[in-house]
Amino acid sequence: MRIRKAVFPVAGLGTRFLPATKASAKEMLPIVDKPLIQYAVNEAISAGAEELVFITSNNKNSILDHFDRSYELEHTLEQKGKTDTLRELREVLPIGVSCMYIRQPEAMGLGHAVLCAQPAVGDEDFSVILADDLIDGKLRPCLAQMQRVYAEYGTAVIAVQRVPPEETYKYGIVDVEPIGNGVSEIKGIVEKPKPEEAPSNLAVVGRYILPPRIFKILGSTGRGAGGEIQLTDAIAKMLEEQTVLAFEFEGTRFDCGSKLGYLQANVEFGLKHPEFADEFKSYLSDLTNTWDAKK
Fold it and tell me: What Pfam families does the record tag this protein with (predicted)?
């Protein structure tokens, strides 16, 4: 039971990162030396995805260019003998993996973005990955962990993470009944509840494995929180028909839709980078000592 198709909703305007995102997609912001969308794509491929579906808007050409071949650049690298860099460049999109791009005509929310993928997904189960949520899996990528749960239980799976109770208003929050190690059955889901109204502190994060049935439900789902078509509202309706599981993944999530989360991700990934991890760690140590001395 392998998920062959992965959907990437990348039509957002990235207003929190203006002016950096005025002319470039927020998903192309780099974490050290790779854009956010590359980490998301690598995660999908690690879980078996072969067809990548990008839901885009009119300012996202940089994403299309990133996953296209650049023959002139490859030729230049080959001529200069930069074989390692050339290999990395060619591995951006491995052989056997294809891309499809679909325009979201109007910004109507995540649920609408997923609905736009219906022509490409068809009647298959599929995954949805939000590049803003960069997840550093401990032993294996988050979606690969979810794939194992999907293979065992044969039903929809949503990644969740415990958040401080006072922050439930930022997320979709689930009410669950535990059934296994890190796996629970979702009994209810609420979009951005106030802390006093939240059924738990288990928050939905940007990883989903969904059945094609979700498209029909989304098609009849009205606008919810923020005046947008919410994916969580459609999942709440789907609970009336089938089991949906919540999975607490192993790993660290960075909210790269926020400036602080983005900076934290760059520091953490920089400290693991094979080229300069030790130098970077030394720099941060010296910088911390310098700031402490100024206090």
Answer: NTP_transferase
